[in-house]
Amino acid sequence: MASYDRNFTDELRTRLSIVDVVSRRVPLVKKGQNYWGCCPFHNEKTPSFSVSEEKGFYHCFGCGEHGDIISFTMKINNIDFRAAITELAAQAGLKLPEYKPKSDEQIAREESYFDIMDTACKIYTEKLFSPDGAHALEYIRRRGFSDEMIKKYRIGYAPKNNIISNKFVNTRMENVINTGLCRRGDYGLYDFFRDKLMFPIFSPRGQIVAFSGRSLDGSEPKYINTSDTELFHKRHTIFGLNFARDAIHRANRSIVVEGQIDAIQMQNNGFPETIAPLGTALTEEHIAILCKSNRNIVFCFDGDNAGQKAAVRACGIVMPFLRDNSDVKFAFVTGGKDPDEVLKTSGVDAMRKIIDSATPLVDFLWNTVNKNYLINTPNGRTQAEKFLTSQISKITDIKLRAEYENEYNSRKFNAWHKWKKKSDAPVIDVPDIDSLTRNTLTYIAIKYPELAERHAEFLASLNISLDDSAPEQNLDFTSAEKYIVSLKLNNRIKKLIQEKKSAMADIVSGAAGDMERVNQIDAEIAKCREKLETITDIV
Question: How far is the C-alpha of 18 from the C-alpha of 28, rounded, in Å?
Answer without folding.
Answer: 11
